[in-house]
Specification:
By secondary structure, the protein is of the alpha+beta class. The chain has one domain (4-104): HIT family, subunit A (2-Layer Sandwich), CATH 3.30.428. Helices cover 23% and strands 21% of the residues. The chain has 3 helices and 5 strands; from the N terminus they run αβββαβαβ. The longest helix is centred in the middle third of the chain and has 18 residues, at 57-74. The structure holds adenosine monophosphate and zinc ion. Zinc ion (ZN) binds next to helix 1. Adenosine monophosphate binds at residues 4, 15, 29-31, 39, 86, 92-95.
Length: 121
């Protein structure tokens, strides 16, 4: 399967890995959107959050716990941080192997998108 994150799991392409165990991997995002920006992925290929089933609940819970653990390790758990799963085009997903973004080190804006201004004509 031609999947970028499976290639990282299989060590076919390099990544700046922060944490790994038998279920998940965490590595630095190549195009950081905050002072700290990492991705937590499962070793198992799941294309989108829409493909998640009950069997994956523990795995996805472990991804979230891994992100929280990293935030603590990086020292910004108390200040706070943002975790995001993007799903499909409207969610801004570009890599179709689920991943949890962990962003920290600065205050995040909310909402995370810019609505198109509808000016009456
Ligand atoms: P998304 O847009 O939610 O699918 O997020 C995909 C993320 O993967 C983006 O933030 C990219 O910067 C990141 N990314 C793409 N290729 C790599 C790579 N080789 N190593 C690390 N991060 C990557
Ligand atoms: Zn994959």
């Amino acid at each position: 399967m031609d999947c970028l994150f499976c290639k990282i799991v299989n060590q076919e392409i390099p990544a700046n890995i922060l944490y790994q165990d038998d279920k998940v991997l965490a590595f630095m995002d190549i195009n950081p959107q905050a002072p700290f920006h990492a991705l937590v992925i499962p070793r198992l290929h799941i294309s989108t959050l829409n493909d998640m089933t009950d069997e994956h609940s523990e795995l996805v819970g472990h991804m979230i716990k891994t992100a929280a653990h990293l935030a603590k390790e990086q020292g910004f758990a108390e200040d706070g941080y943002r975790t995001v799963f993007n799903c499909n085009p409207h969610g801004g997903q570009t890599v179709y192997h689920i991943h949890l973004h962990l962003l920290g080190g600065k205050p995040m804006g909310w909402p995370p998108y810019q609505e198109t201004l509808k000016v009456p004509v």
